[in-house]
Queue: 2 jobs
Job 1
Amino acid sequence: MRGVGKVNVVGRNSFPQFPAHFVPCRPHLTAMFVKDYWENKPHIMRELRAVTSAHSLAVDHQRKVVKRTLGSGIVGSGGQTFTICGDLGVICGVYVVPDTGLSWTKDAMEEVVDRHKTNGRVPPYLYVDCGCCGSTSSTTSVAASWRSMFSVKLDAMHLMLRIGREMNAEHPRRKKFLSDLSQAIFIQHKGDLEALMEARAAARLVGPPTRTERYKFLRRVVGEPEAVAERMMIVLNAHRELDCQSRNQAKAAGLNVDDVTVADIAYPLISKRVMDVFQRQLIHVRNGCLSDDPQHLPYVCVGKLDFHSTGRILLHYQSLRGTSKVEAVHSVLDRTFYSQRGIGSEVFDARLGWWITGYNRRRYRALGFKVPPDSMSPKVFYYGFS
Ligand SMILES: [Zn+2]
């Protein structure tokens, strides 16, 4: 025991400096990340190919994310991401295209259709952000090419966006107008409303249904084309009338009403440009681009609930509607790439590939499916840890 003591324990020479070259530099890490992606890519693609949809596909273009890459040399400065989503917001694919032309999206759509054919059946509906019917761009749009295979629908959110874009963003009545327009397009399902009101009466609840109840138990339907167009016109005329009243009030107050700017009280919400775009959207409504098929409403029943233990069973619905699901994907994708600037196409590919895998797994997990843990790569999942 003689040799053991303070001197022997702490009297050692200090450790040598940690060699700086042991710390991987940034380009090295990026290279490893890309190499790892290339090894995983076939398995990531296989996992993606397993993603299918039963009711509808939704397609949409977005500019934002591509702007953060150095991809303009490859796809040009007008590059966009083209996203195909399935029911309940799962991603069937995200592709970078030079513009909204058909030739770029054809391969992507063909692969997605082919994977559905392999797995059984192609979903009957296709929701689009542009080119739903006989507009000028229809000959080159995704919709025109796939009209024989799908019933093509224009997403109502996009229709309202087109009108909203033409309005003065600061106008005090803009929000009200868009909300009125939404209520004119979507109506509550009669049967669902009756069942809910009966259940509420049985539970001795008074007043209108709460927001949560509406969201869970009431389906919203886009009705017959002519009826929808008529309700939209009523909203438009009501707001034109209000514009007229504001103008008269301003006139009565001695203000100039002929040469108004957007800051003036007499500035109309329904300007000439709004009227023009509104008329163009009515064509889509009348062509039935918006209307739901009453036999196949875009909803899925995800459960049954005994309402407040009254014995009244209500069905819990989830919407399968349109490209608003793609908008949700775009917003998350945008946030993911927000801090990035000028990334190369290979790194972009790698990040996008991993991001889609993670997004879909989280989505499926939330829907109650069994999926591999996020930390397990598709390659390890296929081969095991070897
Ligand atoms: Zn249309």
Job 2
Amino acid sequence: MTVVTRDAVTPAAFGVPETESQRSTKTPAMAAVDLVEEFPRKTKEPVRALQPLTDRGSREGARAMTMDAEFYSRVAERFGGYFSDARSTDVFADGRPDAVFDELVTALGAPHARLLDVGCADGRSLLRISRAYGAVIGIDLSPSMLECAERFRAESGLEHVTFELCDAARTGLPDGYVAVVTSRRGPLIAHEFERVLRPGGAVVYMGIGEQDARELKETFGRGQNFDSWNSRPLSEGIAQELSDAGLVVTRNQTFHFEEFYHSAGDLDTFLQQVPIVDNYDPAADKEAFDRYVAAVTVDQGVRLSRHWFIVQAQKPAAVEPSPS
Ligand SMILES: C[S@@+](CC[C@H](N)C(=O)[O-])C[C@H]1O[C@@H](n2cnc3c(N)ncnc32)[C@H](O)[C@@H]1O
């Protein structure tokens, strides 16, 4: 079992990815110090303007600027990136999904391999694993998240990583261009992923399961994938989409874990930074919020039960014609 305390710093830091065993030998305080050193908080600075959208579907990209991307842009503008200032102690009975994801994607890397990450948000999760690849591109539909990503990239000095405003459905990349496509709680566009992958290449996708924060959503009467708890597991649907696109699913791993927020205020902060409960409003939702906190507060804190999954798939290698 892994226990990690999030103490007003982001869990995502670039550099050498941590393995599960390394993570579990660190005290929470040590982990927090690492992160603070790697991501010193800075006063807001003007951010280099992003290149305009490339001809890879600029109009489509703009049109596809969904409510989703608008939500993430608001988060980036208000909080300076995609991370939570909320303090919690997280207990991972099935392993820590982000650490497992990092290990899988790092193991697929090679000095000349190209990695495409879709829905990269503020880019820190991508920067953390990027050293395993020769060239890395992160795409997202939120300009504000990408401004944060470019700032973190510049701080990291990682010159082989680029960020672009681009729709995952229309990357415009050549066929067979990348060795690996990743999406960490980002979009899944199976046919586009299959197209840009080279034969033998892999997709690694991390998603949110149907049981995620169920008790919270039931209390609020709404939320991401509301009322899908008794339907087909969402990971199966993702695996099916990848397989329908011609990929071979090699992994479907489930992670149930618990987050214990140190106070009701920490949970409130967290809910403002994520889309778990759509349009969460501390004033309008106060009654439901208080009811939830009263029902789930235990000695360790205010409990939030999470359910994530990782699905991995491979594009079949090209078959050499047999000599006649
Ligand atoms: C949950 S966040 C991803 C977090 C990030 N992968 C990480 O590990 O920290 C989802 C991101 O996907 C982006 N997104 C949603 N639809 C997209 C699309 N069609 N193309 C590219 N990015 C998209 C959103 O703007 C948002 O930044």
